[in-house]
Amino acid sequence: MKTVLITGARSGLGLALARTFLARGWRVVAAGRQMDTLPDDVRNNPNTTTIELELTDDASLRACAAALHDAPVDVLINNAGVYDSTSVDSDEVVTTVGDISRVFAVNAIAPRLLAETLLPNLQKGGEHVVVGISSGMGTFAQLRGCGLEPTSRGCDGYEAVHWAYSASKTALNYALLAFGVLHPEIKISLINPGWMQTSIGGKDAPLSPTECAEHITNLIIDHATKLPAGTLVDHLGNTMEL
Ligand SMILES: NC(=O)c1ccc[n+]([C@@H]2O[C@H](COP(=O)([O-])OP(=O)(O)OC[C@H]3O[C@@H](n4cnc5c(N)ncnc54)[C@H](OP(=O)(O)O)[C@@H]3O)[C@@H](O)[C@H]2O)c1
User: Fold this and answer.
1) Nearest CA to ligand 1 atom 37
2) What's the domain count of the chain?
């Protein structure tokens, strides 16, 4: 049985991914905060293991690896993330060094450190895949489009207003791709899940986390043919310009 470790598995896309991987017969290590509140269908599944993980805490990252002991991890999905304002509709972004640092810590720094910490487990797995759940907002292509392309949200410089979130995703992309350069035996793939109805995406988003999770699970399970290494794709596997 193959094993996927999913961060931020308590809600949104992470929870939906836990459900889709369990449905495909994978073992799921659901990592996140307050895992005692993980919905029963996932928590009580015999193929689920839960691990408490606070991504801004080095000791918690080490404890996550310790809790796994030497167990193989086939796929690590760095899914957890935070936004830089209370909602997608708000232009009141975080402005302090502390708050902006926290966005970078959760979205970019911790995913890289977690990949490093779990490298022995990934090397024991059969798939050797690390996925970063990224965002189109973190691409220079979308920033260049601000004010030029009449895209759904890019036309008003939305990405530029939300620079802390956007830049943290750019940093995630770089941090994981650089990890792949140092560890070529590990396949790094970046996935933009699309605009989804979650606490980050808000209720007006066109996509449900369940449908995105189905697509992303398909990409990951068939990664050899469907998921390119070292680049960003959307949830359907279409390559996006970084
Ligand atoms: N929704 C969209 O439209 C959209 C678009 C592009 C990319 N994304 C990306 O998709 C990923 C999933 O987000 P989502 O939309 O599913 O939002 P979500 O429902 O808010 O999920 C975010 C998850 O990250 C976890 N998390 C946040 N801070 C953490 C920390 N310090 N330590 C551990 N876990 C932490 C949250 O845990 P708690 O439950 O404990 O808070 C939650 O489970 C994120 O990386 C996001 O940037 C989302």
Assistant:
1) 8
2) 1
* CA distance linking residue 208 with residue 234, whole number of Å: 14
Residue 227 belongs to domain with CATH number: 3.40.50.720
Is residue 113 domain-resident? yes
pTM exceeding 0.85 = yes
Q: Containing domain of residue 204, as a range?
A: 3-81+108-136+173-240
pLDDT in tens, 62-119: 999 999 999 999 999 999 999 999 989 888 999 999 999 999 999 999 999 999 999 9
CA distance 159 to 140: 10
Ligand 1: list residues with CB < 6 Å. Answer: 8, 10-14, 32-34, 53-56, 79-82, 106, 133, 135, 193, 195-196, 198-201, 205, 209
